[in-house]
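User: As part of a screening pipeline, I want to sanity-check one entry by hand. Below is the sequence and the SMILES for zinc ion. Please return the complex as structure tokens so I can compare it with the automated output.
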Amino acid sequence: MSQRTLMMVGAHPDDESIIGGTLARYAAQGARVIVVAATRGEAGTIFDPTAATPENIAQVREQELRCACQVLGAEPPYILACADGAVQLCEETALEPLVRLVRQEHPDVVITFGPDGIYGHPDHVAVSRLTTRAWHLAGDPTAFPAHFAEGLAPFQPARLFYFGLSQSMVQRWRQYAELKVELKGQLLEFAGIPDEQITLSLDNSPYLEQKLRAWACHRSQANPNAPRQQMPEEEQRRFMAIEHFVLAAGVPLDPPRQGCDLFAGLG
Ligand SMILES: [Zn+2]
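Assistant: Here is the complex for your manual check:
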């Protein structure tokens, strides 16, 4: 079996840690894990003023992302040059570089946010659309033919998954915290993916400590009042350990028969 490659496309430095258990799991199993962030996260709130200033926030967050990738066993990350808070404005310009990355890196499986963006963050929703288009175009011999002159070839990844929270998980969480995030005066809500739409859920408990260490890299973003912190410790660990996926495109899979594996049946 050839080495597997998993590509995760997020909007901001720290999005990779949302799904850090899965990244650590596959890196530990010997897969190449490639993280792509659409932005440097320069619009993020600085929660720890000793970690960053408004002047150096982009560089700091890029470093924090590098730190998290290293902790998770992923390769050094790629950053597409979208502006934080405006990924929807670069969906066209970021498409070519993302298709190029897919053609260069040959991921078997690509994972990104679902259309709900977990809590409707417009950048997460935009990166979901962008990645979905790139997944479909990378294998299209009529898309970005200039790549072929550079020696790249069309490449179709086998699967595209969306990650997110399950609705039942969000309901349990709501007992402890008000699940609303304010973004530019707008209140965004966590909804969760209906449980019956989830293709597979990975229990990444063995990689939880690694995931927490990856989160800890994002020192400038450490919000002591994050809604997650309001859950009891045990519940919080369970919440962090289980990561959910919906198969969005590609080779069908049957988790009850094939086991819980994003690469199941891909040979
Ligand atoms: Zn984000």
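Points to compare against the pipeline: The two ends are 6 Å apart (CA to CA). The mean pLDDT is 94.
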